[in-house]
Write a structure and sequence with these properties.
alpha+beta, Aminopeptidase
């Protein structure tokens, strides 16, 4: 397994396409998220040339995991789509606070149903999170924020990460979500 950590404008179009297809398979096909997609690719307004990606590939160069890192000094998922998760706290906006989103570490080649939090609970997911944190640190991050479903905080802590809630969960489209802060 190999990790690639680069800004979107430095990735090949082929790798971006493979990552977008992988994200479609995970988030749209398996998790059934209602996302705008085109031609089996999952990309949104936060997939910009300056977005930093961590992409995991297997020995056959097949994408098997990914994460997206965004500085909070530019528009990001929590600030633009889920601001209610911060409650009365100010929205992070600092060069040392980055958002991690579109995190996935699942085998999309298997036709088995995905456990509810399967993408977060494997040793591979921990390795991807560690690679993502290392990349964020290289870009000056000291804290990560993320939009998370319930249960992720416990899984992150169990894996040894310093994770905490920014506020109580909020039910969004039938799913309880919270803003998770991860100290790095």
């Amino acid at each position: 397994m190999q990790f690639t950590a680069q800004q979107g404008n430095h990735l090949s179009k082929q790798l971006v396409g493979q990552m977008a297809s992988y994200r479609h398979q995970v988030f749209v096909e398996r998790l059934r998220w209602q996302l705008q997609t085109k031609d089996g690719l999952e990309l949104d307004q936060f997939d910009r040339p300056d977005t930093v990606y961590v992409i995991a590939q297997d020995e056959q160069d097949r994408v098997i995991g990914c994460s997206r890192l965004l500085p909070t000094t530019q528009p990001y998922l929590l600030s633009e789509v889920f601001p209610q998760l911060m409650h009365d706290l100010p929205m992070p906006n600092s060069p040392d606070v980055w958002e991690i989103s579109r995190f996935a570490a699942v085998d999309t080649s298997a036709n088995t149903p995905m456990p509810r939090f399967g993408q977060f609970s494997s040793p591979f997911a921990v390795s991807l999170m560690e690679a993502s944190i290392a990349c964020a640190i290289e870009h000056g991050a000291r804290l990560l924020v993320t939009v998370s479903p319930m249960g992720i905080e416990r899984l992150l802590r169990k894996a040894g990460f310093d994770a905490r809630r920014a506020g109580p969960p909020v039910v969004v489209n039938g799913c309880p979500l919270f803003a998770c802060l991860i100290s790095i």
